[in-house]
Write a structure and sequence with these properties.
319 residues, mainly alpha, Lysozyme
Length: 319
């Protein structure tokens, strides 16, 4: 009898835990009937190169369609991180439609990756290397963090609260993102490669990619290696997959939503970044809505994710 009671209590506890961990599955497709507004910067960038969003979409689609090896690499990266390949495809398509044109051939990305080994890149602002900058006392709270994601997330928050748009010790700091301030190379642009990753995101994902894919850990003091990783398709695809995995996990654990069946949402988060902060904001909004007797708000796609969901049937034919 005692064993039976223990078994029943164990099953009840398991049921409670399962219910607590349950997440609302977000339906596939777009929540918005029409595409949200596209930022002016994206439109101007596209017009400046005498092309259109549709032409850029067709170009990246052709790259995927014509390269079976690339599709195989995407499948492999997706499987390693337990996500549908469409999430990686969505990130690539969105970036090359609204950010920069895709190259015609995958080989060009490898050539670009090699070129970074001979370049002299620095992660710095106004002559101060970021490796020195993060030694300032304001960053001491981050010292105990060992996971690369938590560590660089903490440093980014310190930047936002203690330095961004402020004057510290007589030095003025720009009202701009940490990544844009310290991790922009010496020429225009902040993101690179097939996945259009920025260096800060790559540094955040370094430990996860090292654990899952066995790639070498990235070091902020070696910018050339970071950029080579971003540009080399064999190295960058695991980082794209890891970034998407983090977004899916954040929305499940923090906001209580399962977005794993909606590539438009993961593409949106890939575009805007900071998935944990956004998940917390959505949770806070829904806590308030529930307290007021209103239905919860589902995560919504932006213009970038909207395109991915809108083109999803066509993109699925590639795989």
């Amino acid at each position: 009898m005692k064993k039976l009671i223990v078994l029943v209590l164990g099953l009840a506890l398991a049921s409670i835990v399962a219910t607590a961990n349950a997440a609302t599955m977000v339906p596939s497709g777009n929540r918005n009937s029409v595409q949200p507004d596209i930022p002016g910067a994206s439109s101007r960038r596209t017009q400046a190169t005498n092309t259109t969003f549709q032409a850029k979409y067709r170009k990246v689609y052709a790259l995927l369609q014509n390269d079976a090896d690339l599709r195989a690499k995407i499948r492999k990266a997706a499987a390693a991180y337990g996500i549908d390949p469409m999430h990686i495809v969505g990130a690539i398509v969105g970036e090359h439609t609204y950010n920069v044109d895709a190259y015609d051939r995958l080989q060009t990305y490898y050539v670009k990756a090699i070129s970074y080994l001979s370049s002299k890149l620095t992660f710095a602002y106004d002559g101060e290397d970021v490796s020195d900058f993060i030694q300032r006392p304001e960053f001491k709270k981050c010292d105990g963090m060992h996971d690369s994601y938590d560590l660089w997330e903490c440093r980014e928050q310190v930047w936002n609260h203690a330095f961004r748009g402020k004057t510290v010790g007589g030095e003025d700091f720009p009202n701009d993102r940490f990544g844009a301030t310290f991790f922009q190379p010496y020429y225009a642009g902040q993101t690179f490669g097939l996945g259009q990753l920025n260096p800060l995101t790559a540094l955040q994902m370094s430990d996860l990619v090292h654990k899952v894919s066995g790639l070498p850990e990235l070091d902020v003091s070696d910018p050339n290696a970071v950029y080579k990783t971003i540009m080399d398709p064999d190295l960058t695809l695991p980082y794209v997959a890891a970034t998407i995995r983090k977004s899916i996990d954040a929305y499940r654990s923090i906001a209580g939503f399962d977005i794993s069946k909606n590539p438009g949402l993961t593409a949106t988060l890939y575009n805007v970044g900071n998935p944990e902060q956004r998940a917390y904001a959505l949770k806070a909004e829904n806590d308030k809505r529930r307290a007021e007797g209103e239905p919860e708000k589902l995560p919504e796609e932006n213009y970038y994710g909207w395109l991915v969901n809108d083109k999803l049937d066509e993109l699925k034919t590639l795989f």
